[in-house]
Write a structure and sequence with these properties.
The structure holds two protein chains of two kinds.
Chain A lengths: L1 H13 L3 H13 L2 H5 L1 H11 L25 H14 L17
Chain B lengths: L1 H10 L8 H14 L3 H5 L8 E13 L5 E12 L4 E13 L16 E3 L13 E3 L16 E14 L2 E12 L2 E14 L4 E15 L19 E18 L2 E14 L7 E3 L29 E3 L5 E15 L5 E12 L4 E13 L3 E12 L27 E14 L3 E13 L15 E13 L1
Antiparallel strand pairs in B: 1-2, 1-20, 2-3, 3-6, 4-5, 6-7, 7-8, 8-9, 9-10, 10-11, 11-14, 12-13, 14-15, 15-16, 16-17, 17-18, 18-19, 19-20
The chains are: A mainly alpha, B mainly beta.
Chain lengths: 105, 460
């Protein structure tokens, strides 16, 4: 699957038009590229820090198992609001991935 | 295929000391442990261990009757004892104008919006905004507006293998002017005595968009050059996340998502006003030869169809923190922060706050507040003073600089431990002056919306 993904990206890159090239030049003048490079190191540091936390034993997780402690306690309303925000704001991502159409009139 | 490979693996072991009977039993057990196999063979009872049904109906109302949406969500999920889980999700949207989106005589004008520029024939103030085809007199409120329906259906199958959970999902969403087919692969791995969970995911969506020209989208609008407005879009997404239990009262999550979109990324309905259109030296008439035009207006020389770059990369980093206040009847605080950036030079910050307060009689009260701010895309302008050198035009308010505050609450009550009844309301105000990310925007784009919803959740 990863190989196919890379192949598709390469196929697109071969068909790069002059307009796209021009766009990439414009993009480089507008975009702080160094910010993107910070994402993965931040994630790796965060992952590394997980080893510093004292494990919580199973019998201590009564509160963590409560519905209000779930990352998303109300899935349907959450999906509704995320779709609404997506149709009115340009930002997307973070909470998860996946399609679902536009509905963004 | 898995069944065949297992068979080959067994037959390639001539020196195995197991008796044929036990080997066959082991093989049968291994085959039956594969997801779906046991059920397909009818060996095991098909009845799930648990069943969940969730329904939600919501009503979205935008200020000044710009747009309204009635949405119906119906989901079902079933779980079996061997860690197998299946979900079906569906959403049906009715999108229109006025207060009742089911009424086709009132169309919404939020999408085909544009700004008037200098020297317009209708003597509108430059910079003022117009919704849809309300300028066309006899067609006022009828043509050029939006009435649409969306049906999205998806399914997800997941299987837990001790600390590893794998899931595959896919679906389709169809509107009168948009079609999307998508699938996702996700996996989570529990580490550190289930105190740490690492998540990874990959998603692909193949979309097609066009401008609805009538007959529920079967007629497609065209540019003035005869080309059909719209095109295909491919979206790849990936996710990497880690969730960590900090102590018996709190946990934190950090997610990183990246996306790559290519193809037709423009809005097929929108146009931008361009001033200082070149004069044809022969006819002495303003002549537009510098952009694609929309056929929806009769003053075409000043209008360019919404034209955006054909590629975009997006990144988002989300941090979530949840803390339980045991002394306050185990209320939970949820704090989210997201930073987003993309290759169109849009950066945004999102701050989200929610408080889940358990109350007597199995009632949960949840107030919620959110703040969002974004920088405008590099090619966005309300009105273009002249044709652009790169050929990009968009006056879509979603690409502008702005800030938005929203807040609301939900109230849920559990009945007989298996049924949950609830309702929620959220109010949203979008204001150009509330943003702090800089860029271009206009206060005429300001609007608000209110969304009400009611839900029923049943667990069997």
């Amino acid at each position: 699957m990863a190989g196919m993904h890379i192949a598709l990206l390469q196929k697109r890159s071969h068909s790069t038009s002059f307009a796209q090239l021009k766009y990439s030049l414009i993009q480089s003048t507008h975009r702080p590229m160094n910010r993107r490079a910070l994402y993965l190191p931040t994630f790796l540091i965060a992952f590394g820090l997980t080893g510093c936390v004292t494990p919580v034993q199973p019998w201590e997780r009564g509160i963590l198992a409560k519905p209000q402690m779930a990352l998303t306690p109300d899935n349907q309303n959450f999906a509704l609001m995320q779709h609404t925000y997506l149709s009115k704001e340009i930002s997307q991502g973070g909470y998860g991935i996946g399609g679902g159409g536009c509905g963004c009139n | 295929m898995a069944l065949v490979e297992a068979d080959v693996a067994v037959t390639k072991r001539p020196k195995a000391t197991h008796k044929p009977g036990s080997r066959l039993a082991a093989f049968t057990a291994a085959a039956l442990s594969l997801p779906g196999i046991s059920h397909a063979l009818g060996v095991q009872d098909l009845k799930p261990e648990s069943l969940g049904l969730d329904s939600n109906v919501s009503n979205y109302q935008e200020s000044n009757g710009r747009m309204s949406v009635q949405a119906f969500q119906n989901d079902a999920q079933a779980s079996w004892g061997d860690g197998l889980n299946f979900k079906v999700l569906s959403t049906l949207d009715y999108i229109g104008g006025g207060n009742n989106p089911m009424n086709q005589s009132l169309v919404g004008g939020a999408s085909p919006v544009f700004y008037w520029g200098q020297g317009n024939y209708y003597r509108k103030d430059p910079g003022s905004m117009e919704l849809s085809m309300a300028t066309k007199g006899a067609y006022k409120g009828k043509q050029g507006g939006i009435f649409d329906q969306r049906l999205a259906v998806s399914g997800q199958l997941s299987k837990q293998f001790q600390d590893l959970t794998l899931s595959v999902s896919g679906g389709n969403s169809t509107e009168w002017d948009y079609r999307s087919n998508f699938f996702n692969l996700d996996g989570t791995l529990d580490l550190n005595q289930k105190n740490t969970t690492v998540a990874a995911g990959f998603g692909y969506a193949s979309d097609t968009v066009w401008a609805d020209g009538g007959d529920q989208g079967r007629v497609k609008e065209k540019y003035t050059n005869g080309q059909t407005i719209g095109g295909d879009k491919n979206v790849y997404q990936a996710l990497l996340g880690v969730t960590q239990i900090l102590n018996k009262d709190s946990l934190v999550q950090l997610n990183l998502t990246v996306g790559n979109s290519s193809g037709f990324l423009s809005d097929p309905y929108k146009s931008s006003w361009v001033n200082n259109v070149p004069i044809n030296p022969n006819t002495f008439v303003p002549t537009n030869t510098f952009c694609r035009q929309s056929s929806r207006f009769d003053f075409q020389s000043n209008l360019c169809a919404d034209t955006r770059p054909g590629a975009r990369t997006q990144e988002a980093m989300l941090a979530r923190y949840i803390y339980n206040f045991e002394a306050l009847n185990q209320a939970a605080l949820h704090l989210d922060y997201r930073f987003y950036s993309d290759s169109w030079n849009v950066n945004s910050h999102t701050f989200d706050f929610a408080w889940y307060q358990p109350l007597p009689f199995d009632v949960m009260f949840t107030p919620h507040a959110r703040y969002y701010t974004q920088r405008s895309a590099f090619f966005y302008q309300n009105v273009y003073n002249a044709p652009t050198s790169d050929g990009y035009y968009s006056s879509d308010y979603r690409l502008a600089s702005f800030g938005a505050v929203s807040g609301g609450f939900s109230l849920n009550k559990t009945v007989l431990k298996q049924v949950n009844l609830g309702g929620a309301v959220e109010w949203y105000q979008r204001t150009q002056g509330m943003g702090f990310m800089g860029g271009t925007g206009s206060s005429v784009d300001n609007y608000s919306f209110t969304i009400y919803s009611f839900n029923v959740n049943i667990k069997l």
